[in-house]
Amino acid sequence: MGNWIQDRRKIAGLSQSDVAQSLGISRPTYMKLEKGIHKPTSEQKALLSRIFGMSHDAVEDISAEQEYLASDRVEIRNIPKENEQKFQEILLYILGKVGSRPNIGQTALYKLLYFIDFDYYEKFEEQLIGATYIKNTYGPTPVSFAKIVKKMEEQGRIVEVKSKYFGLDQTKYIAAKEADVSGLSGAELKHIDDELERLAHLSASQLSALSHIDTPWKVAKDREVLDYEYVFYRPEETSVREYEPL
């Protein structure tokens, strides 16, 4: 349960000292809870539920689930693995749809890909691109973007253009060929279209700000890989799935 306590503390924006003080224990003792060395008592679980704004039953359920998973008796959802072909075609599809808009430069593309990927995983618990994203100052960055773009340029599928947007340098990409969407399902295409309709009008700054309140970005350390599993702990502002009430 230690990792979960640490993650919920970060989401709440609390320090270790803050939570330790609320629990009435020393910071070193609290750190043992985060590291999983000690398990929280029933009283501490009740206090944690109040600190993190959750029901006591929810905390108990998570505690039981964590212990069950730790026993190696079950396997959770498959961790997404990047599908480079889908990455290429979805990037080309995005460029064909919205790439000509003045606000869609490289930074905005990073965030559109992130939300398309992570939102799909939250909705369907399956990967779409399954790309690896790291936490950067301006939001999630797809690690293999540069490599894939270079390959697509060499294939004559996209063209890189340097431009200005509100006086700032901007790198844009223009689709030179149409995307091959034969490998995408109707549900996948609809998801991408819905995401573009919802997000593609936003500036890079607005998209970055939205990504900064998203749980996968908030709980990660700088330059750390973002974990897809944290989409199931998102705030209302970024969650795209209808959940059953607790």
Brief overview:
This protein folds into 2 domains: 2-70, lambda repressor-like DNA-binding domains (434 Repressor (Amino-terminal Domain), Orthogonal Bundle); 84-233, Arc Repressor Mutant, subunit A (Orthogonal Bundle), CATH 1.10.10.
Q: Going across the major beta sheet, what is the strand order?
A: 1-2
Regarding quaternary structure, what we see is single chain
Helix/strand class: mainly alpha
Would you list the SSEs in sequence order as H and E?
HHHHHHHEEHEEHHH
CATH topology of the largest domain: Arc Repressor Mutant, subunit A
Biggest β-sheet description: 2 strands, antiparallel
Please give the CATH class of the largest domain: Mainly Alpha
Shape: elongated
Number of domains: 2
Spatial gap, N to C terminus = 20 Å
What does this structure look like?
This protein is mainly α and 246 residues long. It has two domains: 2-70, lambda repressor-like DNA-binding domains (434 Repressor (Amino-terminal Domain), Orthogonal Bundle); 84-233, Arc Repressor Mutant, subunit A (Orthogonal Bundle), CATH 1.10.10. 50% of the residues lie in helices and 10% in strands. A two-stranded antiparallel ribbon has the order 1-2. Strands 3-4 form a two-stranded antiparallel ribbon. The longest helix has 19 residues, at 106-124. Mean pLDDT is 85; it is low at 68-78.
